[in-house]
Amino acid sequence: MLNTKSAEKVSPVMSAYGRFPITIVKGKGSYVWDKEGTKYLDYTSGIAVCALGHAPDAVAEVLKKQLDTLWHCSNLFHIESQEKLAEMLVNLSGCDQVFFCNSGAEANEGAIKLARRYARLIRKKSNGHIVTFSHSFHGRTMATLTATAQEKIQDGFAPLVPGFRYLPYNSSEAISSLEDDDDCIAVLLEMVQGEGGVIPADQEWIHQLDEICSKKGILLMVDEVQTGIGRTGTLFAYEQYGIDPDVVTVAKALGSGIPIGAVLAKKHVSQVFTPGTHGSTFGGNPFSTTAGVATLETFKKENVLARCTENGIYLAQKLSSLQEKYPDLIKDVRGKGLLVGVETSVKAIDLVNKLREKYQILILTAGEKVLRILPPLITDKDEIDHFISKLDAVLNN
């Protein structure tokens, strides 16, 4: 074996991420602290994971009790908290059954497998394809990065998984193309494209898409990994579009930071997942599903959705005022609820770095010239005002 180690000190962690130059060691509510003790307003929420803020008391209290009871149990046995969380998700979504996994990518992978098996067993189609859309993002597994219609995500991973077709998002061309497509077995899309630039789906376009899927027997699958669990002001973003999907995927905020994902489906689809056809060793274990139950219960008890809607409107108004003040710098403000994109005329990462370095505020990008703002859903107007004042200062320099 060749020794390829260089004399230079190299982190034992693979360099798959471009990391900011701080080490986070503590989080509470809307704030995190680095190892030097510096406090930051965290408007990334762990990329839309910490919807209830960092270490929410109500969830933490339940998890501490669970740690003394049972951490893991094979899915070969019934799990009480899993059954309870599944029942809650079914009642909240209108779907009929749930499969639990560990992440958004795994949830989308499960949805892809479900669609393919449904097509073969129920529709008797052995060579159909799944349609996804330009600038989408569905995960990093081989199937989900293939579903992600972005070359930069797929670069270096060929051969890709066959059975996908890409169409333009929010485009009448996509509607016309689907009308003539007799080999499409499912459509997978985000109601708001997060990684693709924070681009909401057009209402009329979604209705047309829904009609075609119903008419042609195409499964309508909605990726709610980033938008789901309240991020847009409703528990699921698709609720704001008046549609009833066949399959819905969720993850991120469902466990308040404890890894969990889920595939929700109508019975006519979920029936094809019979024993032995799909699985996940850790998926739906007692610890993660206890976190999910506590998260959803906290949403209801603390009226989080109403707070998200109210503060989402407030944040959008404040950002629109900045757009009026800096029309040459801010080209667009868009999104839903507390998933907000600000399109700029300059490199977004430069603004992100200035906010972090000068004012201890953390936000993200969504492409080269889009700021992605993801406050915890429990943020308040004072925190929003603070963020806006510091963004104003950065834009003014």
- As a percent range, the share of strand residues is 15-25%
CATH superfamily of the largest domain: Type I PLP-dependent aspartate aminotransferase-like (Major domain)
Low-confidence stretches: none
Indicate the percent of residues in helices: 25-40%
Number of domains: 2
CA-based shape: globular
How many whole angstroms does the radius of gyration measure?
21 Å
Task: Report the average pLDDT across residues.
Answer: 96
User: Per CATH, which architecture of the largest domain?
Assistant: 3-Layer(aba) Sandwich
Blueprint (SSEs and pairs):
Elements: E1 24-28, E2 31-34, E3 39-42, H1 45-48, H2 57-67, H3 80-93, E4 97-101, H4 104-121, E5 129-133, H5 142-147, H6 151-154, E6 164-167, H7 172-179, E7 184-189, E8 192-193, E9 199-200, H8 203-216, E10 219-223, E11 247-250, E12 261-265, H9 267-270, H10 286-301, H11 304-325, E13 330-336, E14 339-344, H12 348-359, E15 361-362, E16 364-365, E17 370-373, H13 381-395
Parallel strand pairs: 3-15, 5-6, 5-7, 7-10, 10-11
Antiparallel strand pairs: 1-2, 2-3, 4-12, 8-9, 11-12, 13-14, 14-17, 16-17
Walk me through the structure:
The chain has helices at residues 45-48, 57-67, 80-93, 104-121, 142-147, 151-154, 172-179, 203-216, 267-270, 286-301, 304-325, 348-359, 381-395, and strands spanning 24-28, 31-34, 39-42, 97-101, 129-133, 164-167, 184-189, 192-193, 199-200, 219-223, 247-250, 261-265, 330-336, 339-344, 361-362, 364-365, 370-373. It has 397 residues and is α/β, with parallel strands linked by helices. The chain folds into two domains: 24-55 and 304-395, Aspartate Aminotransferase, domain 1, CATH 3.90.1150.10; 57-301, Aspartate Aminotransferase, domain 2, CATH 3.40.640.10. A hairpin with a 2-residue loop joins β13 (330-336) and β14. α3 packs across α10 (286-301), α11 (304-325) runs parallel beside α13 and α12 (348-359) packs across α13. It is globular, with a radius of gyration of 21 Å.
